[in-house]
Design goal:
Strand content: 15-25%
Helix content: 25-40%
Strand order of the largest sheet: 1-2-5-9-10-11-12-13
Low-confidence stretches: none
Distance between the termini: 26 Å
Mean pLDDT: 96
Number of helices: 13
Number of domains: 1
Structural class: alpha/beta
CATH superfamily: Glycosidases
Oligomer: single chain
Number of strands: 20
Length: 436
């Protein structure tokens, strides 16, 4: 994993939603570019003040609808702008110390993808696309508009190398590989070494929802995998007051970290918002405390830092509520979201002061249904300074004093920065404390 990644905190943004773009591509032949990327650029200072060090962007390439049905990987979607707008965004981000990682949709393409249109006409490019058992062109997970690429094709390998290199040459820092779990690991093993030969510091994170994360990452030569198991355990254990689930998942997380970096999150563009998912809003801080103290490279999904709400639904348009537009400036955000923002700031600041946490391993010190104490310590591979922090989570209805050895650690972060803490091991009901 590239060394700069240890300090990375991503602000994940879905640009088509963030900028209020049309839901479908602009009509062919009547396509005046909508210069919306400058709107995103105007929020870079907000991301810096939040504490983030980069943008993890959703699809920006020409597509038919939601961006995951790409028709041209070399062209910025005209609903967002043009390549000059994107270059200006990269430059503005770089001047603020922000890196940009792009969403690479290389498992499938939209039906309007030129090579697929040529394949339908009987062209040689038919070899680019996988066939279903009945001989028709295969699609991704039943979505007829998403045509599956044939990852055994040398032409597809060369094409993806060319796309990745093109945008890395224009200043991006890496790629999120959409639906990596659906792509044979051997494909990435062919692509990534060719790209790394010219861009050795680039970072590649694969979207994995289930399966053997570490084994796939090793076979695919990936730097990191999305930590969906941990995401589920965080909100589920808090809702059910079953912190045994979280403890079990953190043990699993340790084993994954032995083999691959983990990209951690409590919200993203594909799931119901954290503030909606949690049945008790007092537990938002618990979720964030875990996110920023376990091993991995964390991301914050835009709007979560303001307590946005939204439900992901399995229907056409079911993502709209979790991919909203952002206003012209921070002053137009609802006032009740700023306490959540400031909580993010403090926890992100703590995480950035302890970059060794990217590779930390956790060990449980106390566990019950409603009380969990765990220690995150630097792994031998991630730090030589012996760093350690302890997190105390109480989701019960009564204060709880944790029967653990404080070990010289002092109170570092609490829900209320102005509160006086008499006993660092005594955690109020539905509260938490980080010792460091």
């Amino acid at each position: 994993m590239s060394s700069w990644v240890d300090s990375a905190i991503w602000w994940q943004v879905y640009p088509l939603g963030f900028t209020g773009a049309e839901r479908t591509a602009l009509p062919a032949g009547d396509e005046p570019v909508r210069h919306r990327l400058p709107h995103l650029a105007s929020w870079l200072d907000y991301a810096v003040e939040l504490g983030c060090s980069g943008l993890l962007l959703g699809p920006v390439f020409a597509a038919e609808t939601h961006g995951y049905d790409t028709i041209d990987h070399f062209r910025i979607d005209s609903r967002l702008g043009d390549e000059a707008d994107f270059a200006a965004l990269v430059s503005a981000a770089g001047s603020r110390g922000l890196r940009i990682v792009l969403d690479g949709v290389f498992n499938h393409v939209g039906r309007g993808f030129p090579a697929f249109q040529a394949a339908l006409a009987g062209g040689a490019s038919a070899a680019w696309f996988r066939r279903a058992p009945d001989g028709s062109f295969a699609v991704f997970e039943g979505h007829e508009q998403l045509v599956a690429l044939d990852h055994g094709s040398a032409e597809v390998v060369d094409y993806v190398v060319e796309v990745m290199s093109y945008w890395l040459d224009r200043g991006i820092a890496g790629w999120r590989l959409d639906a990596a779990y659906a792509v044979p690991a051997a494909f990435w093993r062919k692509v990534l070494p060719k790209v790394r030969a010219s861009y050795p510091d680039a970072w590649f994170v694969g979207e994995m929802i289930h399966g053997d994360y570490a084994a796939y990452a090793s076979a695919a030569d990936l730097d990191a995998i999305t930590a969906y198991e941990l995401w589920k355990a965080i909100w589920s254990s808090l809702n059910d007051q079953n912190l045994y689930e979280l403890s079990w998942s953190m043990d699993r997380h340790n084993t994954f970290l032995d083999g691959v970096g983990m990209q951690t999150f409590v919200g993203n563009h594909d799931v119901t918002r954290l503030a909606t998912r949690l049945t008790d809003s007092r537990h938002i801080g618990h979720a964030l405390a875990v996110l920023f103290t376990v091993g991995g490279v964390p991301s914050v999904y835009y709007g979560d830092e303001q307590g946005f709400r939204g439900v992901k639904e399995d229907r056409a348009g079911g993502d709209d509520e979790i991919r909203p537009g952002f206003p012209a400036g921070p002053g137009l955000l609802a006032p009740d979201g700023w306490p959540v923002y400031r909580l993010h700031q403090r926890l992100i600041g703590f995480r950035r002061r302890h970059p060794w946490l990217a590779g930390a391993r956790t060990s449980v010190r106390h566990l019950s249904n409603t009380a969990l104490a765990y220690q995150s310590s630097a792994s031998s591979a991630s730090s030589a300074d012996g760093g350690s922090v302890m997190v105390l989570l109480n989701v019960g209805d009564e204060p709880f004093r944790f029967p653990v050895d404080q070990g010289g650690l002092a109170v570092a972060v609490t829900p209320d920065p102005g509160a006086e803490i008499g006993d660092p091991l005594l955690v109020p009901a539905h509260s938490w404390i980080i010792l460091g």
